Amino acid sequence: MSLIYVLNGPNLNLLGTREPEIYGHETLDDIAGQLEDRARELGLEVDMRQSNHEGHLIDWLHEAQAQGAKAVILNAGAFTHTSIALHDAIKSVRTPVIEVHLSNPHAREEFRHLSYVGRAARGTIAGFGALSYLLALEAAARF
To answer: Does residue 112 have a pLDDT over 90?
Structure first.
């Protein structure tokens, strides 16, 4: 069974309660359940993780390649706009990375318009709430 890593960055552990008018009412556990259900239908396995620490995300990107993961779905949260280290980690692995966002960063504050993650990722899906993750999984299934 092909493995898809789903990595989530800072503050995503607060989904469902943090600014629901922007991020929705679904929790990260709700999204994980939806992904696991769809992954089974697609013959995939999902390994979903969350950390508020940049280094964990980088280590997990390296691990995804070492484990032969089919793809990584990455919501780097605010690190999207600040982390050259994540950009470089994505560029350093062969595993395709799909950037995902619940909201549309381009419809928000100016500082969110720059994505270091997006500059290195295979593609970006944003603005569809929790559905963004499922759309990214559908894309990853086709690699």
So the answer is: no
Closest residue by Cα to residue 62 from 94, 100, 99: 94
pTM across the whole model: 0.94
Contact in structure between 96 and 143 (CB atoms under 8 Å): yes
Nearest Cα neighbor of 104 from 72, 83, 132, 79 is 132
Q: How many CA atoms lie within 13 A of 29 on its CB side?
A: 3
Strand order through the sheet with 2-8: 44-50, 2-8, 71-75, 97-101, 123-126
**Residue holding tokens 């484990």?**
67
Mutual orientation of helices 84-92 and 54-66 as an angle, nearest 10°? 0
6 strand-pairing partners: 48, 73
Active-site positions read 23, 101
Which two structure tokens, joined as six digits, stand for 57?
């995300």
Q: Which helix (H) or strand (E) holds 66?
A: helix 54-66
